[in-house]
Amino acid sequence: MQFKEVIGQDQVKTHLIKTVRNSRVSHAQLFLGPPACGKLPMAIAYAQYINCKNRSETDSCGTCPSCVKYGKLVHPDLHFIYPTAKARDIDKPTSKDFIKDWRELLLEQNQYFHLSDWYEKIGIEKKQAIINARDCNDIISTLNYKSYEAEYKVMIIWMVEKLFHSAAPKILKILEEPPDKTLFILIAESQENIINTILSRTQLVKFNPIADDALQESLEAEGYDPVLVRDAVRVASGNYKEAKRLVAQPDAESQNYTWFINWMRVCYKGKFVEILDFVNDFARVNRDAQKGMLKYGLRIIRESLLVGFHQDDLIRLNSKESEFTSRFHKFIHAGNIGMIADEMNRSIAHIDRNANPNVLFLDASIKLAQYLKK
Ligand SMILES: [Zn+2]
User: Fold this and answer.
1) Distance from Cα 70 to the centre of ligand 1, integer Å
2) What is the third-level CATH fold of 3-208?
3) What is the pLDDT of residues 257-302, one digit of tens each?
4) CATH no., domain 249-372
5) C-alpha pair distances (Å), 79 with each of 114, 158, 372, 373
6) Could you tell me the distance, in angstroms and rounded to a whole number, from the CA of residue 104 to the centre of ligand 1?
7) CA–centroid distance, residue 353 to ligand 1 (Å)
C-alpha cells in the first residue's frame, strides 16, 4: 500500500511523511477515527514508507524488495494483531492462527472494511472476539527478536478497544520502552473504550471521515457511474466501505427504500388488512435483507428528524430520499423517535435470535402505527 492509494486524508499523510523526513517517528502511535476511513491502509502505507529503500519526498517507491513484500503483506518485519475468538477447530486462538484469512481479507477489500467483515471472514459473527493474553505474549516474543531485514519492525494492533483488560498490563512495558527501531501502530474507532494505561503511552493521530470529494473521485476512478456515486457519497458519511456497498448494489438500496416507504405507509394508514399483506410478503424475504431494511429505516428516521429541524448541513440523503422525507419528517419528532428507533433495534436483535418473522413484523407494525400518530 502506497500513500497514493490511501483515499483522501491528506492532512494525516502530510503529518506522517513529515515525521519520517524529520526522523521523529514516535514509537507508539494511535490511529483513531471512524470505521473504514482509511486508518489501516494508512498504517500499512506509513510502515512501507519507513522501510522503503528508495522512498521519494511523498511516497514509497512500490518496487524495491521491501515494498514488494509490503504489497503482498508478507514482509517478515510487519506484524498484525487483531481480535479473534474460538473458530473452526482452533481452541486457543491467537492472531497468528488467522493470518492467512487476515491477508486475504485485506487484499480482497483493498484494506477498507468493518469489524463485522472480519468476524464474517473467520466465522465468528455470533461471538465476542478479543485480543487475548496469548497475543500479548506473541507481541513481546516477536519484538524481542532482531528484525529480519527491515530498518523498522512494525506491530499493527487493529481494534485495540478489544484488548482484554487483564491481558493489557503484559504489554505496557514494551509499549513504553520498545526495542530499538520498533514501531507500534494501534488502530481504534472509539477512544472511550481504550484502556487508559494503553492510551497514555501512545501519540494520537486523529482521522476524520474521508472527505466527500476524495471519496467521489476514488469511486469514479473505479469506474462507477458518477451519478450513482454522488448519491452514495452523500449517504456514506466518509465511510469507503459503505459508499462502495451503495454503488456496487444500487438495487439493494433501492429495494430497501421501496420496502421501507411501503411499510411506513401501511403503518401510518393503520388498516390491519394492509399491514398483514405487507408483513406476509416481507416475512418471506431472507433475514439479512430484513435486517438491511431495518437498518436503512433507522437511518431515514434519524435523517427525517434533521429535516424537521432544518439542519441542512448535517443531512445526508440522496435525491429520492430527500423527496420522501420532505413529507415524512412531519411524523417523526422528539416525542416518538426514541420509541420508533428502539422498536426497530429490538426487531434487529430478534432477527439475530431467529424469531418468527411474521410475528415479529406484525408486532412491530402495530407499535409503529401507534408511535407514528403520536
Ligand atoms: Zn520501496
Assistant:
1) 9
2) Rossmann fold (3.40.50)
3) 999 999 999 999 999 999 999 999 999 998 889 999 999 999 999 9
4) 1.20.272
5) 20, 11, 52, 56
6) 22
7) 49
